[in-house]
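Run log, item B.
One chain of 457 residues. Sequence copied directly from the ordering sheet:
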Amino acid sequence: MNNLLNAENSGTPLHIIEKSTYPTWLAGQDNHSQTWLENTQFSGTGLSLIPNNQGELSQVLFVVADASDYFACGDLIKQLPHGKFLLQAEPEHVEAISFGWLVGAYQYDRYITNKSAKTLAGLSISDAEGNSDIVASAIKFAQATALTRDLINTPAADMMPEDIAQASLALAEQFGGEVKQIIGDELLVQNYPTIHAVGRASIHTPRLVDLTWGDSKNPQVTLVGKGVCFDSGGLDMKPAAGMRNMKKDMGGAAHVLGLAQLIMAFNLPINLRVLIPAVENAVSSNALRPGDVVTTRKGLTVEIHNTDAEGRLVLCDALAEAENDEPELIIDFATLTGAMRIALGTELPGFFSNSDKVAADITAAGLKNSDPVWRMPLHSPYDDLFKSTIADMTNCPTQPFGAAIAAALYLQRFVDKTDWVHFDVMAFNVRHLSGRPLGGEAFGIRTVFDYLQARFK
């Protein structure tokens, strides 16, 4: 990405302005540029390539509604011809434009044999004081976004539990972390029974991936990511339409690895731990059955009402382990419920928290960086929906209402005293938006990082 964004003073001028300032900008241009824009019937929004008298490109104009939107310029890098462009924009917009420029370059082409030969344009943002830091920061955020997207976009055949472990090992090696794994029947020996129960039917052995990084003297933050590499629904099998994109059900794992990359790349003063219960929810003769009772790591017994509510089962053992260290904060990411998508749509991630202070600060962070999140209620009366006649609880209610809240309440039973945040994310773009192509997407990781950076300085 270094060749796409630099702090230099060279290139064709690229003016990125807001629509409200266009009349003022236009009045300050020479007659040639004004005539060109008039004769090409430029509407005052979008892109215009302005030539000189010899027909060579002399400057570019890009007019947006809100230049502080981090995705406003997300498609611009692919719309411009090859070359180098020098940004002309208000200083307060440079950070957002830089991120949008880089994230718009993303393309998942691992399986495309005839790859595009087009060379993308480069952007210079001048070498003024502070701009080198903006460039370095934008590259780190774009790389973390790309990692998250890549992991989610990879088909399940190439992104099974062992592959998530390899991605974690590569990240640890890059930044000087350490990865341990508990694999297969060793999960039973070391008391992670629900992770084993969900993953045991697959030929891809279930495991708990445990990445650590940082100084143990720093405040500990533990990230937990749902790593269900493919979710058939188990014996309560999904219909074909519901199963089609279930490669994304490890999106929680992808999110915590992307967030971990940010934390390590910026060297935050955090003692970081990342726990990923990685499984495939498959069907075989030894698959978990509806009506089975599983004893969790915490000791609570759970009657399985539906094998397609497996994400909370693998997460609950990981959350119980996360609390053993008494960290300052536990944050989990999961593609947990369709109910959250019905409530908030696919592009706004909902989250739950047992701390009003943490929730308010995270929400505020998301309003500043075009990565919004929305707090949902942990409505405790719904705890009654988990009643079982033969066990401590069921894994999901028998009725579908309030399912996202119910799932969060289930997880909360495994976090007793630690500040905790649970993100229920789509992890997938179902339509193309500026800088956000169809497929895997990172939701909320920039917001959580900004919150962590402000809290742990």
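Observations after the first pass:
- Residues 379 and 423 are 16 Å apart (CA to CA).
- Residues 131-153 form the longest helix (23 residues).
Flagged for discussion on Thursday.
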